[in-house]
Amino acid sequence: MSNGPLLQIRGVETFYGNIRALNGVNVDVNAGEIVTIIGANGAGKSTLMMTIFGSPRARAGQITFDGTDITNMPTHEIARLRIAQSPEGRRIFPRMTVLENLQMGASLDNLKYFDEDVEKVFTLFPRLKERITQRGGTLSGGEQQMLSIGRALMARPKLLLLDEPSLGLAPLIVKQIFEAIRELNKTQKLTVFLVEQNAFGALKLAHRGYVLVNGNVTMSGSGKDLLSNPEVRAAYLEGGRH
User: Fold this and answer.
1) Cis ω on the peptide bond leading into residue 56 (within 30° of 0)?
2) Is 59 helix (H, G, I), strand (E, B) or coil?
3) Per-residue pLDDT tens for 155-167?
4) Which residues contact 220 (CB under 8 A, 6 or more apart)?
5) Closest C-alpha among 42, 55, 66, 80 to residue 164
6) How confident is the model at residue 237 (pLDDT cuts 50, 70, 90)?
């Protein structure tokens, strides 16, 4: 592996038409870390996640993964480097069963590990095992989120990108999902890059965090430091404890 960060984002600018969504963003994610981006709605968090995968493309700057420049690489080739994503809004296959959804996530190179990987997902999310033959569309929001993360894990990623995993879910389910992320990081040393509106939960979970405001990183530090930072508390944490 390269020395330096597993994922390195340098001076990235992304546009929608003529509207600049990211304005020279710099972010590092080191191997084995959980790193979070927090910010208000429309700050550019999801855009940053999508730019890593090349959709939309960065118009300026550079994105490197494990020493490879992926800035202009096609999305399917980026995925092949073992970056997996659980996108905002979950986007599972509603007509497919839980097991079929997991099959869709499995990488063709790793089919020999399929049964072992499915078991790992079921150990992490026992609820999915109970629903193995159910169609994705009939699951609750929390179960769909578990399935979305499970499907991403089937690719045996080096880096897992999670976009708003707690969105629209009950606090108890959010707690389960954050605990599962912590468990993955601890036991499998999985590197996780997390975009979250639930700043309190995300900063408690993350080793380090970045604050994104209108497409600019305005602050960064350890999760603990950002949690206790008065500006962060005032902007994102007042009344926002989950």
Assistant:
1) yes
2) coil
3) 999 999 999 999 9
4) 208, 209, 210, 211, 226
5) 42
6) confident
* CATH of the domain spanning 1-82+159-165+190-242, picked from 3.40.50.10240, 3.40.50.300, 3.40.50.720, 3.10.20.30: 3.40.50.300
Residue 195's nearest CA partner among 58, 75, 71, 25 is 25
pTM, to two decimals = 0.92
Q: What is the pLDDT of residues 175-198, one digit of tens each?
A: 999 999 999 999 999 999 999 989
Contact 188, 157 (CB under 8 A): no
CA 10 from chain centre, in angstroms, equals 19
8-state DSSP, 58: P
Inform me whether the pLDDT recorded for 91 exceeds 50. Answer: yes
The residues near 4 (Cβ < 8 Å, ≥ 6 apart) are 28, 67
- Minimal CA–CA distance to 97: which of 141, 142, 151? 151
Q: Residue 70 in contact with residue 27, Cβ under 8 Å?
A: no
**Are 190 and 184 within 8 A, CB to CB?**
yes
